[in-house]
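Could you help me review a protein record that somebody else here produced? My question to you is simply how this chain folds and whether the tokens agree. Thanks in advance; the entry in question is below:
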Amino acid sequence: GKLRITVNDDGCGIPEAHMDKIQESFLSTKSSGTGLGLFISKRYIDEHPGSSLFVKSEEGKGTTVDIRLPME
């Protein structure tokens, strides 16, 4: 019993070299933005036992963020 939320985009994707750092604060490859989006999201999700956040990305093709939350 988990609720699954999946967000996909067809943007530029995340470079392979940054994938292990994407949940760090203030990391951004864009000229604008704070680099806090995934960092804050991961912190909120981690506060709920049994929840998880997965990121899959391919440079030049886009990114998928998969969030799973317990139903109870």
About this structure: The chain has a mean pLDDT of 89.
